[in-house]
Structures are given as C-alpha cells and as structure tokens.
Amino acid sequence: MLDSVATIARVEDILSRHDGMEGALLPILHAIQAEFGHVPQVALPVVAKAMNISRAEAHGVMSFYHDFREEPAGRHVIKLCRAEACQAMGADRVADHAKKVLGLDWHETAKDGSVTLDPIFCLGLCACGPAALIDGKLVGRVDEAKLDSLLEGLK
Amino acid sequence: MKIYLPLDSAAVALGADEIAHAIEKHAHAKGVAVTLVRNGSRGMVWLEPMVEVEGPKGRLAFGPMTLADVPALFGDLSAHPKALGLTEDLPWLKAQTRLTFARVGVIDPLSLDDYKAQGGLTGLTRALTMDKAAIVAEVTASGLRGRGGAGFPTGIKWKTVSEALADRKYIVCNADEGDSATFADRMLMEGDPFTLIEGMAIAGVACGATKGFVYIRSEYPVAVRVMQDAVAIAQAAGVLGASVLGSGHAFDMEVRVGAGSYVCGEETSLLNSLEGKRGVVRAKPPLPALQGFMGKPTVVNNVISLASIPVIFEKGAEFYKGFGLGRSRGTIPLQIAGNVKHGGLYEIAFGLTLGEIVDTIAGGTASGRPVKAVQVGGPLGAYFPRALFDTPFGYEEFAGKDGLIGHAGLTVFDDSADMLVQARFAMEFCAIESCGKCTPCRIGAVRGVETVDRIAKGDTAAIPLLTDLCATMKAGSLCALGGFTPYPVLSALSHFPDDFNRMKEAAE
Is the pTM of this model over 0.90? Predict the structure, then answer.
C-alpha cells in the first residue's frame, strides 16, 4: 500500500500544477503518463475527485484515447506507421517483418518487458515513408534492413 | 560561416540531428566559427536533410546530406558532391507561389526579429487599425475557405462569432492533422510558428475573443515544442497578452496536445477533447460558432486557414483573391506523398490538374513503376485513376468527380497496389477510429471490413451489399469519418473493378 500512497501523492502534485486550467483533464492524464509511463488505476479516483467527475467518466476519457496506457509499456517502444502514404512505400511489408522478428502483434509487449510494438496512424512523414517512432525518435524510409539495424541498436 | 539545417520532423527523420552534430564537430576541429540555424524545411523532402550555406549571392543548397558529405562543407563549396546551386534557383521552389509558406525554410522559426524582417506582424498591425466588422469583411473578400478540408468560407464563420453576444469567446486552431499524406500544418508550425500566432491574434481581435488554443496532435512532438516556445516568445514580446502590440485588445493563447485519436480532427470532437472529455462528435446545430468551447462562441479553424490570414492583411484581400480558379481562391499547399520521386510541400494557386501534379511536379513514382491510383484528401478521400488526371485542383472540381481535396494531401500508389486491400483498410481505419456515437459509422465500418473480406474470397454477391452499406454510411453518419469513408471504398470499387473480381480471375 505504501506504493499507492506514494503514487497518490505524486498525482496530487500533478493536479495542483493544473489548478484553474480550463479543460485540464487531458493535460493531467498526459502529465501522469509522463510521470509513471502509464496511467495507474489508483490515480483515476484521485483525478476524478479533483475534477468533480465520476470514476467512470475519468476511465471513459482515459480509455477513449490511444495514447494512454493502463499498463507500463516495454523498455523500448516501437511505433510503425500504418497509414496510406506509408503503405504506398511498403509499410505493410515492414510491419509483417517487425511482427515476425519481435514475435509480437500490434499492441503487444514482449514477455521479458523489453519491447512494445504499436501501430501509429501518421507521423506527418508521408513523403519519406515508411515512417517509425522508436523510443520517441522519428525515423523515415524504414525498410526491413533499416528496421533490423534499428532493433539491433536497442539491444 | 552561417549554415541552415532544418529542425523539421521529416529532415530529422532522415538524419538532420546527426548532420547538425557532425557540422558542429567539424567546425570545432577546423577552428571555423559556425552559426548553425535550425530552420523549417523548404519542402523538398527528397533532398532532406538539406543544408544551406549563406554565400555572397544567396544561400547555396546541398542535399540529400549524409555524414560523409559534412567535411566537404568546409572546403571548396562549388566542388561539393551534393551541391545543388542557389536555393532560390531550384526549379521546384521557383515555380511556386509561396504566400502562406513564404517564410518557412527562410527564417529561424523562433526569431521574432527574423519574422518581422520578412514582413511578419505587418498584417496584425494593419488589422489593429480596423474595426471588427472591417476585419471580418476583409477575410470574406479574400475568398479564403477552410483549408482543413470542409472548404467553408472563413469570413462567414468569423462573422457569426464576431456578432454573437457572450461574456467569453474563443479561437481554436485545429492542428490535429491526422490525414495520411498531409503535413502542411506540421511544417508551418515547425517552420514559421509566429505566422499562426499572428493569424490567431487577428481572429481574436476580429471576433472579440480573448483566448486561443492550438490543439496539436501528440504524433507531432517537434511542432508541439516549437509552438510552445514561440507562444512564450510572443507573450514576452507583447504580441500576445493583455494588450496585443499595445492596442488594448487582449488575446492570449495556449498549446494543447491531443492523445492519438483521429476523430478529434473533427471540430466538435476536438472541442470535447479540449474540454477534457471523450472525443465524441457533437450533433450540429448548435454550431461551434455559437456554442463551441465550454458552450461559448468559438472559431474553429485549421492551421493553414489561420496562417493564411497575415498575408491577406499584409497584401490585401484583392491580392490573395487574385490567385486560384472558380470559387477556390488563393493558394493551396499541396502535399505530395507516398510512392513519388519528388515528394514534399508545393504551394501554388488552385487550378493545376492532378496529372500535372503527379507526373510533372512529383515526377512519377519512386519505384519507377506506373502510377495506378492517387488518393486525394487523406484517408477519407477518393482514389483517382489516371483517367481522371485532367481534374483541376479545386473544391468544386474534385467534388464533381466524386472526390474531395480535403487538406490537399496526395498519396501516389504504383501498379503494385491492390485496391481491394486499400478499400478494406479504409473500413478498418474507420472502425478503429470511430468515436462510437452514431451507428452507421460504429457498426457500418465493422460490417464493411467483413463485406470486403467476402468479396476477397470471391463472393461477388457482396459487392452490391458494400455499395448499399456505403450509401447508408454516407447519408446516416454524424460526421465526415463515417460519412466520407465511402469515398475511398466506392472510388476503389468503381475505378478499379478488376481488383474486386477475385473469383473470376481464379477461374480464368
């Protein structure tokens, strides 16, 4: 329980930094995810109370958006663009390769917690696709060989 | 020695940060004093990372740069293996009409002095001498229409908000540019953020709104950072705040970040998201112009619409209106993407044909194979075959061919594309991103994927079913997500019927 007490204290600190902000829930959830790497379940009732909304509403908002995670991601997060401009340059092929090499499907995290594979719909790199976001770093013109070397670099 | 190297996401994704590091390292080793400016991109993505070196006759361009090309920047520049000549003489740039993007790639995006030196704040200064009605009238006279895709006259939207009576009004910039093939908003925010700020300030003064929000998608971390820095600089300089440029008009703004939901690019979903709710579409009426953010009158405009405002006030509505064709006035930043030889951003007056854009400007496919289809207007836009390449680029012209220009993104596909797979993807994407409020979109998209799968297995009887489903989605959906998903699906089906005739092919 000590963990959850500490978590709640950090959430309350985040809440106090957003005091008086109009429509503060998304910025608060972003700040919580930045702090913990995901949005801990124990945080939601605290947020709900502060925002004067029900726990169900807080959960509803959090679960609506693809960005917010209920569970921590792997140590490395690989996001591959699945949108049309990247498809035109072979993104589906690269995605199949990534799934095979990592042994993961979309939204899955490796059992050892090393890596998470997520789809992303457009990074605005549509003239240099296929595009990827690897641990927050933008990468263009990703083919199978480039992906292999990027994955190698994570080890 | 002054060197320019873009901070633009596309340049960074192709290695600009590593090039920047190498330039600084070499300069230090050689004892050369270098001023490295991280500018916006000139839009020639196939040449990124593109370095520019300031010379006596103008800037010299070099690209696409690799780490191995860096040392030669400190030698005889004319002999550099990646030398492209003077930037302003490059044919791709020379043929453009850069009004909205005039400063992108030219200035240091976060230098307010650079911005002012290139005509920045002239428009706002002029607008501050006008009354509200005159500002709105100027926007209406320019013929500017919403660049986000809907094409609604910007001046009429502003007039509604300007004349509405309320204790608070808002200006919301829709920077949730989620359509594949579009990156104009991103490039503008990364390359010339003060233009957007100036446009929003003019909107604020015109409508009597004192607060603005830029809602930027989380997939654009560079744009978020540059905009936040620019807003802070503009506040410190008195461009934003209690008295805009000392005029007595109050206008301030804030950058907000989305959370990965495509449907939040729809204006009412965006407003809900901004209020801290689920990004669910609202029924209209009431219009956001009357009951928008927090129920107050709100202008919701796309980045490019707002960023086109300063030049309209700097050079006049008539000047802007002088470009274009029919009811599509001014310029449009084309975003050329997908399988193309020359991809990037190309700002030009409305009216070029699709064929000129794809064959001449884009130079055909990157793969060298024939062009099969061009999806115009993002994931909700129609696939155009070569037979429709004579369509001029304009709102009505594309609507007349059962398509849309949307946010002016074009995705080119070569002949290896399977249009049934593309139709399936359109339905799958709609199913993933549907907000769930209306049935035709929420259920229809799921049934759509299943129906395309039946066709893929050779069940041609499912084709009329798909057409019927699309008619229901088109007529019955609350917003453009469910309502426009039929565009890519039906255009793929009608222009590329062979791709949907699986059984026949197998039998032959």
Answer: yes
